[in-house]
């Protein structure tokens, strides 16, 4: 599996496109593109590589991760999946946006709710879903075992963890999610977070001050 990272919007949020070497199908995760310029960056990459988006995923639905949901849905006509417990965040987007200086906007609602009973498949790639609440009520991570890569959203960062002081957040739940779902993964697993640079599970076990 190939992971392509783009950093968008005032929150420096990481948007991901996942591909593999077997077809041109791809998955878009957490499109944070908040304006026409950022949308064009994503579109140029897709067109230049002749990719075929087949699915939109959200690790969670905080405002910085969903700016581009409507644009992706309208442009590529693809299904959107997220955890059911993220619906409260989607309902409140029109209220939250002005608080951060953005005009009111909304996101489409998921076409399908996902949890750990599901897997995500595109081309010949299968992603395992890990339910990892604590940053938000319905946070999930997408893990590809064969290449040992995980898209962690705002659960785990290089040298840090996600905020737990937002609605739906809880410190003890977040630590439990990381300890039980992420740290058991192989040390060499590459962690692609919702903000900042990638890290590995082994590095966070050894150096992350929140996990000592």
Topology summary:
Layout: E1 2-8, E2 13-19, E3 25-29, H1 36-48, E4 52-57, H2 63-66, H3 69-76, E5 80-82, H4 87-91, H5 93-99, E6 112-113, E7 119-122, E8 125-131, E9 140-144, E10 149-153, E11 156-157, E12 160-161, H6 171-182, E13 190-193, E14 199-200, H7 201-207
Parallel strand pairs: 3-4, 4-5, 5-6, 10-13
Antiparallel strand pairs: 1-2, 2-3, 7-8, 8-9, 9-10, 11-12, 13-14
What does this structure look like?
- The longest helix is centred in the first third of the chain and has 13 residues, at 36-48.
- The chain has helices at 36-48, 63-66, 69-76, 87-91, 93-99, 171-182, 201-207, and strands at residues 2-8, 13-19, 25-29, 52-57, 80-82, 112-113, 119-122, 125-131, 140-144, 149-153, 156-157, 160-161, 190-193, 199-200.
- With 212 residues, it is of the alpha/beta class.
- 26% of the residues lie in helices and 29% in strands.
Write a brief caption for the model.
This protein has 212 residues and is α/β, with parallel strands linked by helices.
Please describe the structure with a list of short key phrases separated by commas or semicolons.
212 residues, alpha/beta, Metallo-beta-lactamase, Chain A, six-stranded mixed beta sheet, 14 strands, 26% helix
Order of strands across the biggest sheet? 1-2-3-4-5-6
Q: How many domain modules?
A: 1
Indicate the mean pLDDT: 96
Give the tally of β-strands: 14
